[in-house]
Specification:
Blueprint lengths: L1 E4 L7 E2 L3 E5 L3 E6 L9 H7 L4 E5 L5 E3 H12 L4 E3 L7 E5 L3 E5 L1 H8 L4 E5 L4 E3 L4 E7 L3 E3 H11 L5 E5 L4 E7 L1 H4 L7 H10 L4 E8 L3 H14 L3 E5 L10 H7 L3 E5 L10 E5 L2 E6 L2 H4 L4 H10 L6 H6 L24
Parallel strand pairs: 15-16, 15-17, 17-20
Antiparallel strand pairs: 1-5, 2-5, 3-4, 6-13, 7-8, 8-12, 9-11, 9-14, 10-12, 18-19, 19-20
Helix pairs in contact: 2-4, 7-8
Length: 340
């Protein structure tokens, strides 16, 4: 660092904080260490009695931490994300709207392998709300070699590393199966739980059909909902291995393709994922009724983001697929179903 006249300091970097004091009104930092001085700063610095200041000279081919963080953030960011101003060398990435936060994990690792570059994100494939902080980026030193940033920018040129996929407000149909409910022996408590979960995402339920444990009637209910124009079908009941539980067979007989019956997730192992052409059908196991967070909470955001659930997607959930049944559920701010 070295001393320089304030009038000659435009474009240079402050080596230390500069304090402003207004008696009985204010005492604090007017300029922070690392600030890049612009023309508009000169009068204010002179008012603060700073005719000469210590600055950090950035050699050619070097980039200051604030500018580096901005460049990293701009390179990795995709739709649905805005950037904060740099603070102490860090830029935060913030969700613009509610949706599914996704990260290209392989590229993220590749970028973090570049010396002195730091990109930290929240867990992949998590539902987020507008205003949530999704990631923070910075470099380790005060200045960094420009070629390292160019390397990162080249890697990111083809596609964004992080993005938020907006949720679609789907029209849903619910099919409750079970002789005990159909014949009025018990009150259906499963349907209302499912209805609330999807309505919390802005979806609406077009129709709720109650049928007995009869494959023909369940198949008929599926086809009826398709004809009514629903975009998502949820079935409750009939998902165990008992002889009377025929929902998976009935869904297949309705003409749907079964993607998976079963998942490496607890609670939620007996989930069924199927598609009637482009309409997703989720067969929900009983745990959804009485557990705060289950396989349903892991798959629903992907469905609402317009993704087609695949067998590998479900298989990956096994890593982190054991819910720890915390006293206070903190999902999605936890390890459940992270796949990592």
């Amino acid at each position: 660092m070295h001393s320089i006249r304030v009038e000659d300091a435009v474009g240079t970097v402050l080596c230390h904080d500069i304090t402003k004091i207004v008696p009985n009104e204010f005492k604090g930092r007017a300029f922070t260490k690392g600030h890049v001085i612009v023309e508009e700063d000169i009068p204010e610095l002179l008012k603060l009695g700073k005719e000469n200041i210590y600055i950090w000279k950035i050699d050619e081919g070097k980039v200051h931490e604030n500018q580096a963080a901005i460049r990293i953030a701009q390179a990795i960011v995709g739709p649905g994300i805005r950037l904060s101003e740099p603070t102490e060398g860090k830029v935060s990435l913030i969700a613009d709207y509610q949706g599914l936060f996704t990260v290209d994990e392989n590229l993220l690792i590749q970028l973090n392998m570049i010396d002195e570059i730091v990109i930290a994100t929240r867990s992949n494939r998590r539902p987020v709300n507008a205003g949530d902080i999704l990631a923070g980026v910075r470099v380790v030193p005060l200045v960094i070699d420009d070629y390292k940033l160019q390397t990162l920018e080249t890697v990111c040129a083809a596609q964004p590393i992080v993005q938020v996929k907006p949720f679609k407000k789907l029209t849903a149909g619910i099919i409750t199966t079970g002789n005990e409910v159909f014949k009025g022996r018990i009150t259906d408590k499963f349907g209302p739980v499912v209805k609330k979960k999807i309505e919390d995402y802005g979806c609406n339920v077009l129709n709720h059909i109650i049928v007995p444990d009869d494959a023909g009637q369940i198949s008929g209910a599926v086809n009826s909902l398709v004809e009514q124009g629903v975009e998502l079908i949820l079935t409750t009941g009939g998902m165990s291995v008992d002889p009377d539980d025929v929902t998976p067979r009935a869904v297949r007989e309705a003409g749907a393709e079964i993607i998976t019956y079963g998942a490496p997730v607890l609670p939620g192992a007996m989930i069924m994922v199927a598609y009637m052409k482009d309409i997703p059908i989720l067969g929900l196991p009983g745990c959804v009724m009485y557990h705060a967070t289950t396989i349903f909470d892991l798959l629903l955001p992907s469905v609402l983001a317009g993704e087609r659930i695949t067998k590998p997607m479900v298989a990956r959930l096994g890593l982190g697929g054991l819910c720890l049944n915390c006293t206070v559920c903190r999902y999605p701010l936890c390890s459940f179903g992270t796949g990592a």
